[in-house]
Structure formats: C-alpha cells, structure tokens
Design a protein that fits this description.
It is built from seven helices and 22 strands.
Length: 372
C-alpha cells in the first residue's frame, strides 16, 4: 500500500490517496488503514467511531455507502424496514427502507456526516443500476440487474434520487412526493406518504383535507431527521398536495399529484433535440404513458414499438425493470412503472430525425430531432 501510494504521489502530488476498505477491523490490526492519506470505509457505519480512534489521520471518508435497494415506481406494504427483503415479483420497495445484510439506509450516513466533523463525505453505491449483482435476488431468475441505484438502468430517477438531491443540491430546492396515487383496491387502507425535501417542514393534503404538518427533527430517528413522513394516511383516489414552508413559517412551494385515469396516449421527452451529425451523438427520449389529461399512469405496462426515420437510427431502449429479459437492441419494449427510455443516434449526415412510438390502444406520439 505504501509503495502504491508513493507512485500516486509522484505522478500527481496535488491529490491525497484513499482506498475503499471493506475489512475494516483487519485494516486496523494490520496498520494498512493508518498508511493512507484518507482512510475510506465501505459501509460498517457501526465501526466509524472505533476507526476514527484507531487511525492517526483524524478524518474518515465513506468510500462506499448505503447499498439501499429499490425499484422505480414500486411500493410495498406494510411500510417497514427490511433487510434482504424479497417479494414474489422480485422487486424492492421505493419507500427506501430496504437494504442488504452488510449495508444501511442513506440517513445512517447522513447522521455521521452531520454529527461527526471528522467524516468528510461519501461515495454512494450506486448512482445508477447496472447489469449483474441483483441483490437481494442473487439466486432468483430472471433478476439480472442491480437495485442499488439512485437512478434505474434506463437512467430514470428513483425516489431515492430526490432524497440525495434534497441534501446535495444547494442551488435549487427539492420537493418530491411518494408514492404514486393509483392504488385500486387499497381504498380505506393505510398508505403512508413520504416527502423528500430541502425544506424543514410541510403540510400534506388529501383531496383538500389536511393530514397535518410534519417537521424534520434533529433529535429524532435518522428517517425523522431527513424525511417528512405521514405514516397513517388512508388511501382514497384523488389529489395529493404538499405545501412546504420556509424558515419564517410561510408557504414557499407546493407539489401536487393526482390519481391518473386509463392509459390514453404517450408523452415523448428528449433530453435534447439537436444532435451533432457525427454518427455517434445520441438523444435519450423518455417515453411516458399518460391519461387523456396528460397525467402519468404510474402502473402502466404497455407494449410499445419504435421507429426512426431521417438522419438518425434507433440505437436501444431500456425500461429499468431489473427482471426484464427484453433485448435492448430491438425496437420494441414494455414500459415499467409507466416509463421507458429510447435512444436515437445521429448518422454522419445533417438533417431531420423523426421518432415515432406506438402502443396498442394508445394514441401514438412523434418527436422531431435535428442533426447538424
């Protein structure tokens, strides 16, 4: 370790060296951790205090943290913490209370970073889902990709993305509601509502009726410190609204979510509409199933087909479902939790591109792109 660190220092003397240490106890005993510029701990939140006392550097880094698991747009009841929790559909709950035998929830890391000045930050496992390592379904076919990401395999944000955003993004405020509000058959049943927000307090309304104000509590549980939670909400179709309050107690922002009607049409949203005509550039087009009023249908599983004409070609599609065996390279795929992403690639010639998406029983949609 000393030899490798000296090579790094020689090649770039401006940067300190760290490493992700999984066997933390062993690195304390061997002296390995004491050699590094910055000791990095993989998980092991219960060993931070001991490691801080054992290592001479007086700082620690979360070199691999959380490994919380979730599936975009999927929610499980009852809403309780779970370790290696499994379900018949091979998905994990986006209430973000499920993790692995070796890992933890995001707030466990937040607490250490906020309460211990010697904890300097973290690298979260992971930003995106990836093929392989489908914990907690490692031996369950057809699970074939991970559940760890803040964003799914298609790059679509999960709810957990907004929990981290509420903490990390200092330039813009965050106000995010979950779960979705399409629960046929759950009428009258307890359906907790969470809000991930950079604001300290908010009031929740269900069909105009207040569910009360929640505030983040610095002396509460880790979840109470960083989430706003209404655990006793009873589901009824309609409108969910959250109103956030500023430091002065006055309303400053609100977010509304409604129960969607039947799937009616498709909404296409490219990440950009102008591409470079270099044969490589790609536009990522998010496809959402919506009702006749344009509200997203969060539980829609619509089989779609894609066609591209003009100065571009269909490159791939992905729906973010960790259990999907649909090939990425074929121009057809089913939506997962009402969404998927289509990749359109530019050719080497400038011109117009038209992507058309169709699905049985749905009004087709088209989006125009330009290469130059």
């Amino acid at each position: 370790a000393k030899w490798l660190q000296e090579i790094f220092h020689r090649e770039d003397p401006t940067r300190p060296v760290t490493v992700g240490m999984d066997q933390v106890k062993a690195t304390m005993q061997s002296g390995f951790g004491a050699l590094l510029d910055i000791p990095g701990l993989n998980y092991r939140t219960h060993l931070y205090e001991e490691a801080y006392k054992a290592f001479p550097q007086s700082i620690l880094l979360g070199s691999e943290t959380a490994s919380t698991v979730s599936s975009r747009g999927v929610y499980k009841f009852p809403v309780v913490k779970g370790v290696e929790k499994q379900y018949p559909d091979l998905q994990s709950s986006s209430y973000d209370l499920e993790y692995c035998s070796w890992s933890n929830l995001p707030e466990d890391d937040f607490v250490l970073q906020d309460d211990k000045p010697w904890v300097i930050g973290e690298f979260v496992w992971t930003g995106f889902d990836y093929l392989g390592e489908p914990t907690p379904y490692d031996d369950k076919w057809p699970s074939r990709s991970s559940y760890f990401g803040m964003a799914d395999l298609a790059g679509l944000p999960k709810d957990r993305y907004y929990l981290y955003r509420s903490r990390w993004n200092k330039a813009e405020e965050t106000l995010h509601l979950l779960p979705h509000w399409n629960w046929p058959g759950r009428e009258g049943q307890t359906t907790p509502v969470f809000v991930y927000t950079s604001y300290d307090s908010a009031e929740l309304f269900i069909n105009g009726k207040s569910m009360g104000i929640r505030k983040k509590h610095s002396n509460g549980t880790p979840q109470e410190r960083y989430r706003l939670m209404w655990m006793d909400v009873t589901y009824e179709p309609g409108t969910v609204k959250v109103v956030a309050f500023g430091k002065d107690g006055k309303p400053v922002a609100e977010k509304t979510m409604v129960t969607a009607g039947k799937p009616y049409q498709l909404l296409l949203e490219p990440d950009r509409t102008t591409l470079s005509a270099d044969g490589n550039d790609i536009s990522f087009v998010t496809v959402t199933v919506v009702d006749k009023d344009g509200n997203p249908c969060p539980d829609a599983a619509a089989q779609l087909e894609f066609s591209v004409k003009g100065a571009g070609s269909f490159r791939a599609a992905c729906n973010g479902d960790a259990t999907s065996l649909e090939p990425f390279h074929l121009p057809a795929m089913k939506t997962f939790s009402g969404k998927l992403v289509v990749l359109v690639q530019a050719t080497g010639k400038a011109g117009n591109i038209a992507l058309t998406v169709k699905g049985k029983g749905l009004k087709p949609a088209k989006v125009a792109l330009l290469t130059k």
